[in-house]
Write a structure and sequence with these properties.
- This protein is of the alpha/beta class.
- It is 46% helix and 13% strand.
- The chain has 15 helices and 10 strands.
- It has helices spanning 2-37, 81-89, 101-110, 122-130, 206-217, 226-239, 251-256, 267-276, 305-315, 318-328, 335-340, 343-346, 355-361, 370-385, 391-422, and strands at residues 60-66, 92-98, 117-118, 165-177, 200-203, 243-247, 262-266, 280-283, 289-296, 362-363.
- Strands 4, 7, 8, 9 and 10 form a 5-stranded mixed β-sheet that branches. Strands 2-1-3 form a 3-stranded parallel β-sheet.
- Helix 5 packs across helix 6 (226-239) and helix 6 runs parallel beside helix 14 (370-385).
- The longest helix has 36 residues, at 2-37.
- Residues 1-23 form the signal peptide.
- The chain crosses the membrane at residues 394-412.
- InterPro entries: SBP (IPR006059), Sperm_putr-bd (IPR001188).
- It is found in: Periplasm.
Length: 423
Amino acid sequence: MMKKFILALISMSLLFASGCAHIEEYDTEETADTEETTEVQTVTVDNPEYYTRFKNDGISINVYNWGEYIPDGSEEGVLNLNAEFTKLTGITVNYSTYATNEELYAKLKGGGSTYDIIIPSDYMISRMIKENMLEPLDKSNIPNFANIMDKFKSSEYDPGSKYSVPYTWGTVGIIYDTTVVDEEDIGWDILWDEDYSGRILMFDNPRDAFAIAENMLGYSLNTENSEELEKAAEKLKEQKKVVQAYVMDEIFDKMGAGEAIIAPYYAGDAVTLMDEYEDLGFVIPDSGTNLFIDAVCIPKGCRNKEAAEMYINFLNEPDVAYAIADFIGYSTPNQKAYEMLDDEVKNDGISYLDDDYIEEKTTVFCNLSDEANQKMQTLWTDMKSSEEQTPNKVIVPAFMSVCVIASLIILIRRYIKKKKDMF
């Protein structure tokens, strides 16, 4: 009896040991698989020593950027560049976003918030320079400025890049649903087409919206002529009856969900949308368009200028500039990053247009005079607040008026009849 008990005990021990070995082996394999799928990505920089200057100083910088305009680690395999910068330098990045240049401008003018880095567009940079809102850059703290393509190192809005370093560039075109809209029919006028009424989106900022109307009317995209601005506003007012909504980043949800089928927007965002939704296409009208440049600046009143310049230098590391272009889909002005791109991207006809089209058909926004800016803003506000007299908006009030008059007539007749009955 004792022998049977001992044998049973030995058998159970062997089975338990075997099971533990199996579990240990499985756990090891599972860990290996996990490690393989969550491999940590890193950024390679040309001069690591440069980034150690503030390593133990407890410094932070406030960065104010467009929405969805830098890799943030929100997707698998995508770097969080702000976290990488902190890891490299010890500098904490406080990050917030805005939707339009005008929102950025109003925030800075209103005070109450301090930023070390902002990324406005060309014409807004010019305006901020004029109004003494930007710090001149110390290029000795930004050695990677050498990576910027020669054609972007100086511009009309900031000659010699004294106040800014180009971040991205691109053009404006039309995103459309290929299952509904024929590419051959697409020009700027399709945004006024009543056949697509209620399914058209429009820019919710005056400069881009006016530029489309000005293009259609044959005016300069930088016109300051008061009469031309008024006619462009009238053109936009005519469009209101077919517009579903005035949007900026909301375009991603609306076009992606099929709530709208036509919208003007930036080429880089179009690339992102088309990657996600195969039925969407993008056309840059033959009549011409705006070529924009967004650039990194340091606003007046910043707390940590040298740390901000280090951040600008980091953004222009080849690996970092490539990661930005790859993630957001916008064109890079960084030569070394451009050389890392696939030929398919370089030749897609959207991100990198041929030089002839750029030279002949694109216009870079210039800063308008204070008077022209105010005129445009007033016209835009009036246009947005005006009521378009569509059939429903006329018929419904008219019907209500008829009902009220009919009710009054009935009441008067009853009153008269009652008076007669009394006598």
